[in-house]
UniProtKB/TrEMBL annotation:
Pfam families in UniProt: Peptidase_M43 (PF05572)
Family assignment from sequence similarity: Belongs to the peptidase M43B family.
GO biological process, one term: proteolysis
Single Gene Ontology MF annotation: metal ion binding
PANTHER family linked to this entry: METALLOPROTEASE MEP1 (AFU_ORTHOLOGUE AFUA_1G07730)-RELATED, PTHR47466
Gene3D superfamilies in the cross-refs: Collagenase (Catalytic Domain) (3.40.390.10)
InterPro entries in UniProt: MetalloPept_cat_dom_sf (IPR024079), Peptidase_M43 (IPR008754)
Protein name (database record): Peptidase M43 pregnancy-associated plasma-A domain-containing protein
Amino acid sequence: MGVSSALVFPRGVSNTAAGFSEADCPDPGADFWKLSAQVAGEEKLKRDLLEEDPHNATLVARADITIDTHFHVVATSQKLEDGWVSDDQIKKQMEVINAAFNKRQISFKHVSTTRTVDQDLSIIDANEKTEKLGNKLRKGDYGTLNLYIVKDMPGNVAGDCTLPVSRHGGKFAFDGCRFNSDTLPSKGDGKVLVHEIGHWLGLGHTFQSPDTANPNPTCTTGRGDDVNDTPVHLKPNGGNCNAVDTCPGQPGTDPVSNYMNYSPSKCWSEFTDGQTTRMHSMWNVRKTAK
């Protein structure tokens, strides 16, 4: 079975973008990067073919995606401060998600909500895997999105999602997204989950991240996201939405408004066309994984 990693989103980024440590942005691992490189190669081949034959309907066409979605409220009591959320909050969160993804031919269908009071499940320990929740609550197949709302993610983490794998061995308990209850609309803006679902659909962070050879990435070292149209840039370190160019020797400016950046979530409003292609490609990975 392929090894599924989770990519996290720090708590503070929804309001500011300061105080990061590299622990806030762990490397997804060799299995994911191998899959990412393979998918990127297939996408490049398709772009090259499209340049030769721009009117080829088979190459241009992109099917709409609808993803069944299950919410799991896991709280320590039925109080809002203990992780409990209302149906209205979940409805508003779904509206935020679909507003972000619908224009990219991806929609999410709210199928069910489960509610559990369990302190052990609701307070996530460091290094605790999604599988602990999945073993008790997960629904559907590998193309089904399971969203676990908890009272407390560990440390500086606001949420995390597992990345796609091409081999799962028929077991899906490890797969899904976990996030703090206070990131939902009314308390938060709901965009943390947009960022995390981007990971679930195979997107990396847009900025240069550490790799084995380069623990301190620069504009020419480290690892980007393998997407052809996201500009090379460094991790944000400010709390505003001002235009910036951290890699002036590279094409483009920092994508401050991109959902997969670590700029403040109030800045976010878009995915690129390349990221859209990647999400559709990784959706196909999810649907064909065995």
